[in-house]
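Continuing from the previous page of notes. For each protein in this section, the sequence appears first, followed by its structure tokens. Read the first protein now.
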Amino acid sequence: MDHIIRASADNEHIRAFAATTRDLTEEARIAHNTSPVVTAALGRLLTAGAMMGIMMKGDDDVLTLQIKGNGAMGGLTVTADSKGHVKGYPDEPLVLLPPRASDHKLDVGGAIGRGTLRVIKDLGMKEPYIGEVDLVTGEIAEDLTYYFAQSEQTPSTVGLGVLMNKDNTVSSAGGFIIQLMPDVKDESIDILEENLKKLPSVTSLLDEGKSPRDILALLLSGLDMTVLEETETSFRCDCSPERIERALIATGRSELMSMIDEGRDIEMVCSFCNRKYTVSVEELKKLCNEAS
């Protein structure tokens, strides 16, 4: 079962999150029929989105992560809420690249290229919070580490990983986020840095069967870790016929009239889950009467 562990350490001067996300990453792979390198990229961003989503407090708060790059993948969009639900899609799902020459791993950075990472938080205020940074590597974890430091002034370490099976299904996926709060002691930072140096890669830990709790125990060894909460996380899209109808009405009366004049049913596809919705001409006429 996919889940997120939230913990604190060093008398609440360190906060930490770790997640296992194999099922939701596989569900996203199936929905978008992604190639291995795109699956790895999308799985990493979905994992980060799920953990960052539960950092929000309000039931209706929404987080969006957008990556735009000049590589073959183009970009990724992920949306998460505060309850562990996450969804997302790639711009180009079928990118194929050779593995990195240095370590023979999937070349996520090469597929994304240079570009920007944007974080949008809709917290029920008049305007959403928007933070944007240039991509550091395109490998996503390092880019999020840079974002937290630059846009939120929160020293953080992000680790993300997706491991694929030979048949291109997802073997495991997950990650962690460690953040330093104000007044953290230098000695505690030294311990954390040593733990990070000794920590294997996220994919290695997952391949060994390590749970989110196990990963945090390694990261926060010697820092008096306290587990605060365990939250289920899942790929969940909230698209519906009603949402499709509202989207069509929002296009305006003239656009709907053009569709009606073509005299045939239209098919709408949800970007996040690829679910298809058919809207008949008669239904379009009803929506046209509701449009301004």
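Done with the first. The second protein uses the same format. Note its length before scrolling.
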Amino acid sequence: MASVQTHSDSTARKHPEWQYLDLMQHIWESGSERVDRTGVGTRSVFGAMLRFDLADGQMPLLTTKRVYWKTATREMLWFLTGDTNIRELCRQNVQIWTDWPLDTYRRETGDEISREDFSAKIVSDAAFAERWGELGPVYGKQWVDWPTYQYQADGSYRKGPGINQVAEVVESLRNNPGSRRHIIEGWNVAQLDQMALPPCHKTYQFHVADGKLNCALYQRSCDVALGLPFNLWSAALLQRMIAQQTNLQPGEFVWMGGDTHLYLNHGELVEEQLAREPDGAPKLVITRCPDSIFDYTIDDFVVEDYAPQSALKAPIAV
């Protein structure tokens, strides 16, 4: 393994992004090497925490590589619709979820279609999208339409109304801010085997103190090189949106990881990123306050003072 820069001697330690870089370095140098579901292999640690202050528009947007925050934002807005088909994402050229249905399509049909052509066909052909673009009841479905079942006198169950967890959390924050039940949960045990990918960022809990909205996210599985930069932005974005909707100031965002890992084939990305130092303080401006948490659009978000270093790419493990 090639050696990487040691960050502990740096004199510029106040930038919050050092938390991310130090975690990456710790995993790469000390993580347990494991065989994983994808077969690629990882170095992994269990139990990690990062904390970010969101006051004054601050966001955990990495500067040591370019993070495509608009893509992550489009995904978050898509989650809030409850949609489970990639067609709308592909229509916006967001390919975050395309690899999973593409892999299924190739495996079941033997057609080695390119991702570009597959995505284009998803957009142009509604029947094809309905057959091959479905992901199952992933994040958004659980967030805004968690299924319920009502017990009947004859011992059977009838499907009941879905639960919109996001709407309920917004209302509970408005009406009962001291509650310890401000939770959005994605881990629906009964439906995990129907999902293209069980939720990684699975549990969000919100907490109000001194007029500020804090958020803790527990992530059961985390790809630190490719996934975590998006996860940090997206969760902080959701926190900012909910804070605006509940007339609270954004407080602290706390991220907690279970199996926190780097893929073995991400070594070049890791070593390049660890050779860089963070700089700058990007801020998020939300330009309007819509009537509902579900009414934001991509044009409502502006990022200022973001001058990242160049993008770093690595293969995604499906």
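What the second structure shows: The mean pLDDT is 94. Strands lie at 32-34, 42-53, 149-151, 157-159, 183-185, 201-209, 212-223, 249-263, 283-286, 301-304. We return to this in next week's lecture.
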